[in-house]
Amino acid sequence: MAVVPGSRALISLHRSVTLQHSFGLIKVQLSATCHPRRLCSAPTGSDEPKPQVNPDNQSLLENLNLMGVDVKMARQRQPGVLRKAFTNETGLFQFLQGKGVNRKIIASIISRYPRAITRSIAHLEQRWELWRNIFKMDSEIVTILERSPESFFRSSDNGNLEKNIVFLSSLGLDAKDLHRLLTTAPRTFSNSLELNKQMVECLEDICAELGGKNPEQFVKAVISRNLYILIRSTKRVRTNIDNLRTSLKFSDSELLALLKGPGAEILDLSNEYLKNNFNSLQQKMMSLGCQKADIKKLISSYPMVLYIGPSTLNSKLDCLLRGGITMKQILEKPKVLDYSTQNIMGRLEELKRVGYDFQKNGINILDSSKKRFLAKIEKLRASPDE
Asked: How confident is the model at residue 156, as a pLDDT?
C-alpha cells in the first residue's frame, strides 16, 4: 500500500474573498482543510484510536472575528457550525447589508444563531420573498431578524415553509396572525405540513364533539389565541381538555366557550403541570371557604390562573387577603393575580398610607397601569376624603 509523503500530509484549499463596505476591503481567507487519513490497515483491539472531533475552521473564526461576531457565544449556541469546512458568512453579510441591516446587527444575528452562515444566497433570496408575502416592508423583516434570528433561519426547507404559509392562510388566518406566528412560534413553519394538518384536524374534531357548528372558526380562534398550539402534540391537547371536563364538570357548551376564548392558552400547558396547578388551586380555595362553583367561576373568567405555580399563587392570595381584600372581591376581579407579589405588596402599602378603603371603593385600583395607579395615589393624597 502506498504511503502518503509528508509533504502531502495536510491539504488546504484557499479562496480569497473581499468583505466590502464596513470591512474596508480587507482580504480574508476562507479555507477548507482536509486532514490526512492513514493509508494502512487500522490496528485491532483496545488500542484502536477513537475518532476525533473535527477542529474549528480557523479561517472561519478569523472571518467571524473581523465581522465583530461574538465567537464565544456562537460556540455555545451551535458549536458544530464553527467546524464546517464551507460556510457563507461573507455572502450572508452582503445579502443582509443589501436589505438595510447594519454590521452590528449582522454580527449579533450570527452570534445568536450561527447556522445562518450555512445558508446559500439562493436560499436567502427565496426565503426573503416568502416572508415578503406576509410582511409589507423589508424593514419589518429586519426588525424580526434583530429580535429573533431563529425565526428566519431555523428551517432550511423553503418548499415546506411555502406550503405551510398557504395552508395556514387557508384557515382564515390573516397576515397579522401569520406575522405573530412567525415571530412567536417559528417552529410552526418548520413543522411538516402533515403535522400541522393533524393538529388542525384534531381541533376540528374537538369542536364537533363539543357541539360546535363552525369547526373552521373554532380552529382560527384557538390558533389566534394560542400561538404555540401547532407545536404541541394532539395527545397533550386532548388530555388537557379531558382533565378540565372531569375536574370542573364543564358542560360541552361551557367548555367550547372557554376554549374559543382565553382558555385556549391553557391547552399549551403540560398535562402534569395543569393537573398539579389545578389541584393546588382547589385545595387553597377550599381552605379559604370557597365552593367548587367559585373555583369554576375563577377558571372560566380567568383561565390564566392555571399558569401560576402553587407557591406563587398562594403567596399572591395571602398577600391580598392580609391587605384587607376578600376572596369574593378577588373572584370578581381576578386579573389582580397578573401582578407579581412584590408589586401587589407595594401597591397595598401605598394605599394603606392614604387610607384607601377596599370595602367601600373596591379593588379596581390594583388592576391599573403604573401611570394610572400613581396618578390616583397623588389624587388621594391631595383629597384624602375621596
From this structure: 84
User: Which are the contacts of 315, defined by CB distance < 8 A and separation ≥ 6?
Assistant: 341
Are 230 and 191 contacting, i.e. CB atoms less than 8 angstroms apart? yes
Closest CA to 117 of 17, 11, 231: 17
Look at residue 139 and give its three-state secondary structure. helix
CA distance 295 to 155: 43
Taking only the tens place, the pLDDT of each residue in 234-293 is 999 999 999 888 888 889 999 999 999 889 988 989 999 999 999 999 999 999 999 999
**Cβ 187 vs Cβ 148: under 8 Å:** no
Per-residue model confidence (pLDDT) at position 144: 86
Low-confidence ranges of the chain (pLDDT < 70): 1-53, 384-386
Three-state SS sequence of 331-356: HHCHHHHHCCHHHHHHHHHHHHHCCC
Q: Grid coordinates representing 254?
A: 361551557
Residue 147: all three cell numbers together: 429580535
Write phi, then psi, for 213 (nearest 5 degrees): -100, -10
**Dihedral sign from CA coordinates of 138, 143, 146, 150:** negative
- Alpha carbon of 151 to those of 113, 138, 288: distances in Å? 10, 15, 45
> Which pLDDT does position 37 carry in this prediction?
32
